[in-house]
Amino acid sequence: MVPRAVSRSHPTPCILLVLLAACSASAAEWEGTLKGSARLLVDTNAPRDFSDGGTPAPGVDPALSILGAAEGRVTFERTQLVGRYELGGRMYPGFPSEDTLIQTGALEASLALGTEFGVGAEGHAKDRRGGTRAYSDLGTSLFIEYAPDVRMALRVRGGARRFVYRPDATANFGGAEVGATGRYRFNRRHSLTLFGEWSARRYGIQARTRPGVEGSAPGRREDGALTAGLSYSYRGPVTLGLGYSYQEVSSNSFGETVLRHRVTGSAGVRLPWKLTLMAQGSLGITRYPDGIYLSPEIILVEEDEGQNSLSLKLARPVSERVDLELSWGVWSTRLPRNDLTYSRQMFGVGITWRD
User: Fold this and answer.
1) Which of 62, 207, 235, 351 qualifies as a FRET site for 294, CA 20 to 30 Å off?
2) Which of 79-88, 235-244, 282-291, 293-302 is least confident?
3) CB-based burial label for 355 (10 Å; 0-12, 13-18, 19+)
4) 345 and 328 in contact (C-beta within 8 Å)?
5) What is the CATH number of the domain that holds 148?
6) pTM of the full predicted structure?
7) What angle do CA 14, 127, 248 make, to 5 degrees?
8) Any signal peptide, and if so, which residues (predicted)?
9) Distance CA 42, CA 36 (A)
């Protein structure tokens, strides 16, 4: 069947009515999962400060992290509805200004048109409160999917996005987005995914004029954001993943253009005594052709997207549904031209429960 779960969605009313009418006479198949985790952490840079040399940024603090997730799917003869919701929070006794609460939600509705084509609507929402990077990110789109067999799937989508950055309204934007994702499975162990996305972002502020250039003002700020990349995955005695992505944000506002290359890797392996070791890492190169301007857009980049990182997790089941986990991670980056560096480590111990 063409419809299947994806990571984000929110159907429009018209699409939803068509789907409900199509599945009213069909028997439904329900699936659902629940997951919860709690961790005690030690953060070596809780305020996420930059330092100006070899002196590390102060701010070691313990933290409590809690995460809950729910995912459900209902499948009819030709239609499918998929939903997901996550709620997470982190509390710092020594730096309460860094306490955060994050919610993410996704919903998708899809309808199979024969054995190879499908259409549907998807949407997602993310809301982050607390700390210095509070924002809301909303998006919705329509898509067409082509899946001639179990090895190949292609999805083309188009929609709109709205981003609201609460500490500074000058970073708010909205606009149209188009994108495509293709996956090919060589066999049950090897698969390759290609993706690309372009968006036109419009802001409510005037674009910054290039210093020393005379003439008419550039008008309202407008950005074009391009993202493209590929990833490879292997499923066998060892689970491996490798990916590369390129992002280019071209702006008519001086100092806001950004070019970013990012390589990611992940691995998982089972060890003796029922232990599982998982590792993730990323390496990025970021360039600002106009130089560094500490705009809100630089600040709101997530820690696992804007910096070099490495994380390890060791897990062992203590019962059928509960795992005990030890974790460690490090994030670092450097701002060119001013030698400001950022470094942060996180040590943790926790438990995960799953239904």
Assistant:
1) 62
2) 293-302
3) exposed
4) yes
5) 2.40.160
6) 0.83
7) 85
8) 1-27
9) 20
Residue-range definition of the domain harbouring residue 52: 13-211+218-354
* b/e burial code for range 10-45 (CB count within 10 A of at least 16 → b): bbbeebeebbeeebeeeeeeeeeeeeebebebebbb
Query: Can you tell me the distance from the alpha carbon of 229 to that of 193, in angstroms, rounded to the nearest whole number?
Result: 9
Closest CA to 268 of 254, 280, 283: 280
Dump pLDDT digits (tens) for 171-198: 899 999 999 999 999 999 999 999 999 9
Q: pLDDT tier at 6 (50, 70, 90 boundaries)? A: very low
Which of the residue ranges 47-56, 227-236, 324-333 has the most confident prediction, judged by mean pLDDT? 227-236
Q: Exposed (0-12), middle (13-18) or buried (19+): which is 261, by Cβ within 10 Å?
A: middle
Residue type at 74?
A: V
| Alpha-carbon span 308 to 297, nearest angstrom | 18
The answer to whether residue 322 is domain-embedded is yes
Element spanning 214, H or E: none
Question: Where is 325: in which H helix or E strand?
Answer: strand 322-335
Tell me the three-class secondary structure of 95-138, residue by residue: CHHHCEEEEEEEEEEEEEECCCEEEEEEEEEEEEEECCCCEEEE
Nearest in space to 99 (alpha carbons), one of 51, 138, 135, 131: 131
Domain-embedded: residue 272: yes
Q: List the end-to-end C-alpha distance of the chain, in Å, as a whole number.
A: 26
Does a structural domain hold residue 2? Answer: no
The count of structural domains within the chain is 1
Q: How far apart are CA 247 and CA 173, in angstroms?
A: 18
pLDDT confidence band for 246 (50 / 70 / 90): very high
Neighbours of 107 (CB within 10 A): 20
**Nearest CA to 175 among 161, 163, 158, 186?**
161
C-alpha distances (whole Å) from 270 to each of 111, 246, 322 are 39, 32, 17
Question: Domain for residue 7, yes or no?
Answer: no
